[in-house]
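user: Here is a favour to ask of a fellow structure person. I have my own habits and do not want them to colour yours. Could you put it straight underneath, so I can go through it closely?

assistant:
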Amino acid sequence: MRGVRQNRRVPVHEITDPDDDRIADYRALTDVELRTRWEPPHGLFIAEGELVLRRALRAGYPARSYLVDAKRADQLADLDTGDAPVYAATQEVLQRATGFHVHRGVLASFHRKPLPSAAEVLAGARRAVILEDVNNHTNLGAIFRAVAALGVDAVLLSPSCADPLYRRSVRVSMGEVFAVPYAKLEPWPDALAQVRAAGFTVLAMTPAPDAVPIQRLDAAQRARAALLMGAEGAGLTRAAMEASDVRVVIPMRRGVDSLNVAAATAVACWELGRDDPL
């Protein structure tokens, strides 16, 4: 350790040892199993890239610490880092500590906020997306980015969905995971009854032959829609579909029977909101 140097307003603590306990939050970031078992119980998540960490701060997530490429420490010069320390290291040390090349130059560790209940998330919502068993972090991040852009007010997750605050999900969402309220929906799938009781029409996306083309939904079915999406490949379980109100499909051509779940969610959300005022 070489001590502390000043970066305009922000004191920067230089790290030379990848095993330094002060940067323990950032170890083995590429080990998905380890990180998903370790981060939520410890109440933290990692943001990668300046844009994402600034969005986390604007959303009110308290920072625990920052870890930056020593050559790019000026990126944080204008931040009010509060009590969160800023650590800087060479790319070699960063890579040995995290397990990957930190090409965006900056990472941050944040405290999680308590999750609201499903009822709280739905209370002010007009349109929602419900995800069953979506456990791919890239898909999950892309879904959050799409729903933020397309006017969805809430996301509900079955208990086996991936963690929206896992580093890859946050990065792929471009930080939009901080913009859309979300909650766990359990017990699954019985809790879908709570969504219906809140006044939503649950629309189950499926290629089943009896599904209604989504563009043919009437005004009442669109008014407060909760779009239910299943995992990549497997789709929705029978129990989830039986708990829905209407089965819907995106009509396709050239023999294609389905889209990636993130792409399908985006198309469906656009269709449900196409008459919204801009």
Q: What stands out?
A: The first strand starts at residue 4 and ends at 7. The domain at 4-111 is CATH 3.30.1330.30 (60s Ribosomal Protein L30; Chain: A;).
